[in-house]
């Protein structure tokens, strides 16, 4: 799915997740509106929630992929957002993705970042609230085409590289010689 196509799904995910907890009220959910001073990057969403008598602002970043490399980058991004937020308020970082793997979940938990995905996994831990839901299946797994080292083009390049005289090649020279 494209990132813009995921936005309504992520919004529904947030609303559904907070509707499950009776003492947690989602007061507003909106794109970021000026809480961060002097920043070129803004979080995707700000969710105002009330837990009992306390107000929290969830700083939400949504990503198209939940693989560990993307999650590590997002965790740093969320930490950067939190460091530039107004002091005196309660903030909690939250990552949304189509699927968060076990490894990605550990990265988030160790960094103190909550997560939720479209597969039904979620982890939030702030104030007196704790949500931890884990499923095993990834309904968003993409089938990738297997590539072979022995395709005709790769074979031609290998033949040129392994044919005497053995020498160093520049990429352009190698491409011309092997007709790739």
What does this structure look like?
The chain is an alpha/beta fold. The protein contains five helices and seven strands, in the order H-E-E-E-H-E-H-E-E-E-H-H. It has helices at 3-19, 68-83, 102-111, 152-162, 171-178, and strands at residues 24-30, 45-51, 54-62, 90-97, 114-117, 122-126, 129-133. It has a seven-stranded mixed β-sheet, sandwiched between helices. Helix 2 (68-83) packs parallel to helix 3 and helix 4 (152-162) packs across helix 5. The longest helix is centred in the first third of the chain and has 17 residues, at 3-19. It is elongated and about 80 Å long. It starts with a helix and ends with a helix.
Which structural class should the secondary elements be placed in?
alpha/beta
Percent in helix: 25-40%
How would the global form be characterised?
A: elongated
Q: How much β-strand is present in the residues?
A: 25-35%
Descriptive labels:
alpha/beta, elongated, 180 residues, seven-stranded mixed sheet, single chain, 5 helices
Task: Give a short summary of the structure.
With 180 residues, this protein is of the alpha/beta class. 34% of the residues lie in helices and 25% in strands.
SSE layout and pairings?
Blueprint (H helix, E strand, L loop, with lengths): L2 H17 L4 E7 L14 E7 L2 E9 L5 H16 L6 E8 L4 H10 L2 E4 L4 E5 L2 E5 L18 H11 L8 H8 L2
Parallel strand pairs: 3-4, 4-5
Antiparallel strand pairs: 1-2, 2-3, 5-6, 6-7
Helix pairs in contact: 2-3, 4-5
């Amino acid at each position: 799915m494209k990132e813009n196509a995921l936005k309504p799904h992520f919004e529904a995910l947030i609303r559904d997740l907070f509707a499950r907890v009776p003492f947690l009220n989602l007061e507003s959910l909106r794109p970021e509106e000026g809480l961060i001073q002097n920043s070129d990057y803004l979080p995707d969403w700000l969710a105002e929630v009330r837990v009992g008598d306390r107000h929290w602002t969830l700083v939400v970043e949504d990503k198209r992929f939940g693989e560990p490399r993307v999650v590590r980058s997002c965790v740093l991004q969320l930490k950067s957002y939190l460091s530039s937020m107004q002091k005196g308020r309660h903030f909690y970082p939250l990552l949304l993705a189509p699927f968060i793997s076990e490894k990605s979940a550990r990265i988030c938990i160790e960094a103190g970042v909550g997560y939720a995905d479209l597969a039904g996994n979620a982890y939030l831990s702030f104030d007196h609230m704790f949500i931890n839901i884990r499923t095993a299946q990834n309904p968003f797994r993409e089938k990738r085409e297997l590539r072979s080292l022995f395709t005709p083009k790769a074979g031609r390049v290998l033949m040129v590289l392994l044919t005497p005289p053995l020498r160093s090649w520049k990429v352009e020279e190698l491409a011309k010689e092997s007709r790739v």
